[in-house]
Amino acid sequence: MTVVDKIAPDEAKAGARTPPRPTLRHRLSRWDVKVSPYLYIAPFFVVFGIVGLFPLLYTAYVSLFSWEAGDDDPTFIGLDNFKELFADTQFWNALENTVSIFLLSSVPQLIIAVLLAALLSARIRGATGWRVGVLLPYAASLVALGIIFANLFGPKYGLVNGLLQTIGLDPVDWQAGRFSSHVAIAIMVNWRWTGYNALIVLAAMQAIPKELHEAALIDGAGTARRFFSITLPLLKPTLIFVTITSTIGGLQIFTEPKLFDAMPGSNNGGSSNQFQTVTLYLYQTAFENYELGYASAIAWVLFVIIVLIALVNFFLTGRLTAVKKK
Amino acid sequence: MTTIHKGLKRGVSALGKPRRATYVVLTIFVLGSLFPFYWSFLVASRDSGMLTERVPPFLPGGNFFANAARVFDTVPFWKALGNSLIVSGTVTLTTVLFSALAGFAFAKLRFRGRNGLFVFIVITLAVPTQLGIIPLFMAMSEFGWAGGLQSVIVPNLVTAFGVFWMRQYTLDAVPYELIEAARVDGCSMIRIFWNVCLPAVRPAAAILAMFTFMTSWNDFLWPLVVLDAGNPTVQLALEKLQSGYYVDYSLVLAGTTLATIPILIVFLLLGRQIVAGIMQGAVKG
Predict the structure, then answer these.
(1) Domain B76-234+254-283 has CATH 1.10.3720.10
(2) What's the predicted TM-score (pTM) here?
(3) In chain B, what residues touch A58 (CB-CB under 8 Å)?
(4) Residue A75 DSSP code
(5) Can you tell me the mean pLDDT for B159-168?
(6) What ipTM is given for this predicted complex?
(7) Where would one find the signal peptide in this protein (chain A) (predicted)?
(8) Which end of chain A lies in a sparser environment, N or C, as judged by fewer CB atoms within 10 Å?
């Protein structure tokens, strides 16, 4: 078998010299070589089967039923859950909120991350120290963060409103307004992830050959020119990678809006659902209202949306790298 | 001319040599990163009355330990800490071990279906598993695991990212010659893994361990679904502190400070490695 040959050619040769009848030890060893790889990769497939694949498929099955928690005899209703969902204004509202928060967070986050990476890529003293400092928010727990920011953005005594008033502006009821709540939640997201993304961009920046910058410098290109004509184009694949990961995370945002509520513990996402996201709506439907069938339909629609956006990103990446190769 | 010459001599980076402005901007950014932690400690070390003051104090008060003690009276915080340690510790150990095993197999062993199975794992990276929480919750209830720590541990025993990460590292870190030599000496596969592969991939395993521990420690949605209030993790205990009609912020933020200090210490101790890990992952991925 190639299995043995590839791994231990010496042993195969040695086997040819010894008598043809394989010893027990030898047979055990062959068996070991054949079976071990499957044993080593088995844990992932078992766990993924149980917690990834099965739930995804079973979610599709449950979504076809009117299925309440504790219900022993759920009724099959076909695609009615999906029909209802597409006519559900609260769902569309949640989807809009999710996309709005996602855009408000990922766009400024990427821009700041690139600029920050540019600063960090200069030959600064204590480079590692600065990098650790920038990454600090990544260590915070989302729950602690949600609580702290809910306090900072509090309507009456929040520090942010205090500052606004100090410089002569009107205080904002951050939780009550739709746009203002999205801004506050986006700031929370950005605070945690900007430094992390900056480091990823920084790694890509450092991989850019120095000769390119040197050549441009000799041609008389200034700092800004080199940044826009060399650094930025070569960062494209990394930026798309960062966009994809933050899209997948951003579309599932849950903890921040849940903890930002002025009525702590609520799953409404504000008094008029002004910052309820899709995952928060999914959680409310399943574990507060116990409508498991309907919640499963929400989960599947969200899954399809995420896959579609990931695919769009994927093809975009392919096109951009194809352009680069030319 | 001289600037060009200087630039070439110093080695050129994206923005040239650092100016004072670079340090100023970075300092502002790092202070901004630190501020919410500091604010949380500030409120926790005083009483909630400070929040009604127009100009809040800038230095901590002396009530931190009193507020922290109230956290332990209000929610089962010791139990939550213990639970979080058990869950994150177990998940970290198994994730690193199983990922290293699978990474070894994918990187260095030949077997039928290897490439196909690996591509499958890479694809699953894009599947958001948290969308399956409803059937997973039903399954956990069925097993009678809901409320128990195993319901939080078992789904996280190993991750696609971990397998991917360890495979990438093992490819370069373990020479075939070493494996062959060990086989000639009559080593079993598992001994080769343990004595040859594992020591060689220790740096990658350490980075994976840190990330897994942090992710697991901070996990919220799934524990919220499957655990109950009497048997919480730290994150659930924090959320419980905050939910109520009247929010006592000195109490709540004492809780967030307590929960953040240990992970902040770990982060500051291992910061260099964590940064290196993120940057290394970015280049390879």
Answers:
(1) yes
(2) 0.85
(3) 132, 135, 138
(4) E
(5) 92
(6) 0.84
(7) none
(8) C
